[in-house]
TrEMBL record:
Entry protein name: ABC transporter ATP-binding protein
Record keyword Transcription regulation present: no
Domain ABC transporter, first and last residues per copy: 4-248
Keywords: ATP-binding, Nucleotide-binding, Transport
Tree of life domain: Bacteria
Membrane-spanning ranges: none
Length: 375
């Protein structure tokens, strides 16, 4: 049974001018035991409101939330359990540590204030030492948070969330206030702690790298709705909308009209750059449909112009510039009015104004219906 189950949840806020914001607009979501689910989306898409509703810090308008099979919120049954009765740990973007308390006192606090039966004093001390050591800050137990770096403070906040050893922990952008290097390290530590302790997690972020790295499943949110949910690999390689393809990774896009559906299932599409064959067609399309074609930058081949055309999706393009990005280079090339981004491990730069041959396997061209809301 899922640890968390959210059904058709809705929550509206009133703005000062009286207009309504649908912060959560019909979300359903399950989190399996031990699963790490990341809620990903731009600022304002409803991530925090959803998380706070699960924690009991925000009262939804309608829907239902079950935690460990127990209804904690249900508009039908008029249930709304207080946060402390939901047995969840939560950690926020601001560390929210008490400056007048030592690290030890900060971390032991939720244990001392837990509902009965409580741990003994010895057990509490052992528990705090255990999580502080796990996070590599055992030596800071007697210090005050004010004297520490952002990374150390966030470790203390993590320790405080882990100490009660709840089987469910909610994270609201906990790493956005720490430096990139520390953030990277804390992500890895978070994963190894999860492997060690085995909690389920719902983790909010607007950072796609963070989402890809941490998640068993990513739920991409858009305007208070789940646009797509799946493993990082699924979300990256099989996005179901332009919104998701743009939010996760880089995508080249061109719109067109379906001209022919081939026996193989591939489709020929008339576009501003001529006919394109798309072989990755998740839905049904018919002749005359408006579609958008998506291609990841690493799926193209860029060669000297002298190369023979290979296959149907082959064009002569004009070089613009190359950006060296370390592990790969990003080549910017132009084709008619399109600017395309092509990635390769090859570090030779394209020359501005020079002609090149660009090609792509039809299997790497994803064909999605062009929904009006995606435009
Ligand atoms: P996110 O965490 O993804 O940035 P939020 O859940 O904070 O998004 O906000 C979702 C939407 O609800 C936004 O439009 C935000 O302005 C609005 N909102 C959130 N909290 C309140 C509130 N207390 N009063 C009015 N509007 C709110
Ligand atoms: Mg937020």
């Amino acid at each position: 049974a899922p640890v968390v189950s959210v059904r058709d949840l809705r929550k509206e806020f009133r703005r000062a001018d009286g207009s309504a914001v649908r912060a959560i607009d019909g979300v359903s979501l399950d989190v399996a035991p031990g699963e790490f689910v990341v809620l990903l989306g731009p600022s304002g898409c409803g991530k925090t409101t959803l998380l706070r509703s699960i924690a009991g810090l925000e009262q939804p308008d309608s829907g239902a939330i079950h935690i460990r099979g127990v209804p904690v919120y249900s508009s039908d049954d008029v249930i709304d359990l207080a946060p402390e009765r939901r047995k969840i740990s939560m950690i926020f973007q601001s560390y929210a540590l008490w400056p007048h308390m030592t690290v030890f006192q900060n971390v032991v606090y939720p244990l001392k204030n837990a509902p009965r039966p409580r741990l003994s004093k010895t057990e509490m001390t052992e528990r705090v030492s255990y999580v502080l050591d796990l996070l590599g800050i055992g030596q800071l137990a007697g210090q005050h948070p004010g004297q520490m770096s952002g990374g150390q403070q966030q470790r203390v906040a993590l320790a405080r969330a882990l100490a009660p050893q709840q089987d469910l922990i909610l994270f609201d952008e906990p790493l956005s206030n720490v430096d990139a290097k520390v953030r990277e390290q804390l992500r890895l530590e978070l994963l190894s702690m999860q492997a060690e302790i085995g909690f389920s997690a719902i983790y909010v972020t607007h950072d796609q790298t963070e989402a890809m790295e941490l998640a068993d499943r990513v739920a991409v949110l858009r305007d208070g709705r789940v646009e797509q949910i799946g493993s990082p690999h699924e979300i990256y390689s099989r996005p179901t909308s332009r919104y998701v393809a743009d939010f996760i990774g880089t995508s080249n896009e061109v719109t067109g009209t379906v001209e022919e559906v081939l026996d193989s299932g591939a489709v020929r599409i008339q576009t501003a750059i001529g006919p394109v064959l798309g072989g990755d067609v998740p839905g049904t399309v018919a002749v005359g449909d408006q579609v958008v074609l998506l291609a990841r930058p690493e799926r193209f081949r860029l060669e000297p112009q002298a190369a023979e055309p290979n296959g149907p999706n082959s064009w002569t393009v004009e070089g613009d510039t190359t950006l060296f990005l370390g592990a790969h280079s990003q080549h910017i090339v132009r084709l008619e009015d399109l600017t395309l981004r092509v990635w390769s491990a090859d570090q030779t730069s394209v020359q501005r104004g020079q002609s090149y041959r660009l090609s792509i396997d039809p299997a790497a061209v994803r064909v999605l219906p062009e929904k009006p809301k995606d435009q």
